[in-house]
Design a protein that fits this description.
The structure holds two protein chains of two kinds. Chain A is mainly α. Chain A has one domain. Helix content of chain A is 83%, strand content 0%. In chain A, helix 1 packs parallel to helix 4. The radius of gyration of chain A is 14 Å and the shape is elongated. Chain A starts with a helix and ends with a helix. By secondary structure, chain B is of the alpha+beta class. Chain B folds into two domains: 209 residues; 127 residues, Rieske Iron-sulfur Protein (3-layer Sandwich). Helix content of chain B is 50%, strand content 15%. Chain B is built from eleven helices and eleven strands. In chain B, helix 1 crosses helix 2, helix 6 runs antiparallel to helix 9 and helix 7 packs across helix 8. Chain B is elongated, with a radius of gyration of 25 Å. Chain B starts with 11 loop residues before the first helix and ends with a helix. The chains are: A mainly alpha, B alpha+beta. The interface between A and B is medium-sized, with 24 and 22 residues.
């Protein structure tokens, strides 16, 4: 039972990560790291798994960077 | 290093390295499966694949963990270090195949979720001979996964070098889990002690290599520089520094790399801005100090990466008096230009002295 709940939580977390990762690799990554500007499509694809795992950190950085731009 | 990120920063050397890794892995797996089919015809292809990928992943893991200490013991191993991350991702891929087929073979055939089955089919955690060793392999694979997905430089910048390095140091925990996974699995399934002995020998070799390299580093760091003059300390004789290479000195707990380039001596901070690699263990390639870990480059004259790159390290003032090299351990601001200290002794005489 506990294992099932943990698995559901992990899958939900990663699903949220996938939803976040798509706009992030298209637009957000350029905002938080200037070396990503002009980054290749391969680079954007390769960071998707990491974005799915570390999405809360990336979201925080993206929001923070967006605030600076204003 | 790159101005904009690419998926993989390949160059000719790295391509050769990767092709070699690929060819070795393909040859290993093919040979293992062919030999298994020949001598153990009862084994299914899946079993042969699970075993071949398991042994290959463990072999690659031992190579990966040996590279660091080996390069500290002997610089001839440096080329192995340049592309270690690709070797790591390859090892993860092989381990993932092993894990996936193991899940398919042992946990996917019932009506229970395979991941639930992994943790609930055997719960004898208090037994050595029946310990659920597969869970240990799973957790090791999770660590390798986290390392593989953060292997791109983007993650180094995003997570910060300190956190990135800390995350990747978990490889030692993963190694321990792998060893226990194998040992406890062998106890349950194997009657042949060869694998058991090989894994023990591998672990002993790794521990020895790390101890030897660590001792060498400590000895280097503990050297006391007694001769001082107006802020400068005497570090070595000019002929002690090989051409296009460096000697590393630890003064006031800071490591400084003293490079010789075109018969001049230049000192820069030993720590690469990219991932903290030991610059003094690298060489001067195309006029640039090249980090042995990932090839980040700095000009010896000012400690700056050549344009368009922006990394900078601290530089230091060096003087040469006769054959004596004196170094001021007070760092100049990162990227400060200073002329190198010309070596006074002619090369011919240096060669004679060395001989």
């Amino acid at each position: 039972m506990v294992i099932s709940i943990v698995l559901i939580l992990i899958v939900t977390y990663l699903a949220c990560g996938l939803l976040f990762a798509i706009p992030f690799v298209i637009k957000g990554v350029d905002k938080i790291d200037e070396a990503a500007n002009g980054g290749s499509i391969g680079f954007r694809i390769i960071i998707i798994p990491g974005a799915m795992v570390f999405w809360p950190l990336l979201l925080k950085k993206w929001i923070k960077q967006g605030g600076h731009k204003k | 290093m790159g101005a904009s990120y690419l998926a993989v920063g390949w160059n000719r050397q790295k391509k050769i390295y990767d092709w070699f890794i690929f060819a070795f892995c393909a040859l290993y797996l093919t040979t293992f499966i062919a030999v298994t089919a020949l001598y153990n015809p009862d084994y299914t292809f899946e079993t042969a694949l699970i075993r071949s990928t398991a042994t290959l992943a463990i072999l690659l893991l031992h190579v990966i963990l040996s590279i660091g200490p080996l390069t500290r013991i002997n610089k001839k191993f440096l080329p192995l270090l340049y592309n270690r991350r690709h070797l790591g991702v390859t090892m993860f891929s092989v381990a993932l195949i092993h894990g996936s087929f193991s899940m398919l073979q042992f946990h996917a055939l019932g009506n229970v979720n395979p991941f639930v089955s992994l943790f609930t089919s055997n719960t004898q955690y208090n037994s050595v001979s029946q310990f659920p060793f597969q869970a240990l392999g799973f957790f090791a694979l999770v660590i390798f996964f986290l390392m593989a997905i953060t292997s791109h430089d983007f993650w180094l910048h995003t997570l910060s070098p300190k956190i990135w390095k800390a995350l990747h140091m978990f490889v030692y925990l993963a190694y321990f889990l792998v060893i226990m996974h194998v040992m406890l699995g062998v106890v349950q399934y194997e009657t042949n002690p060869v694998l058991f002995v090989m894994v023990l020998a591998g672990a002993a070799t790794l521990v020895t290599l790390h101890l030897v390299a660590g001792t060498k580093e400590v000895r280097k760091d503990n050297r006391i520089f007694k001769l001082k003059k107006e802020g400068f300390v005497y570090v070595c004789e000019s002929q002690d520094v090989p051409d296009n290479c460096a000697k590393i000195f630890c003064i006031d707990k800071e490591r400084i790399a003293l490079f010789r380039f075109e018969n001049k001596l230049y000192a820069i901070h030993n720590v690469c801005k990219h991932q903290g690699g030991p610059l003094g263990e690298g060489q001067i390639i195309d006029g640039c100090i090249t980090c042995p870990w990932h090839g980040y480059q700095y000009l010896p004259q000012n400690g700056q990466s050549p344009p368009p790159f922006k990394e900078k390290v601290s530089t230091y003032i060096v003087t040469v008096e006769g054959s004596q090299v004196w170094l001021n351990p007070q760092p100049l601001p990162e990227g400060t230009e200073r002329s190198g200290a010309a070596i006074i002794i002619p090369d011919k005489q240096i060669i004679e002295n060395v001989q």
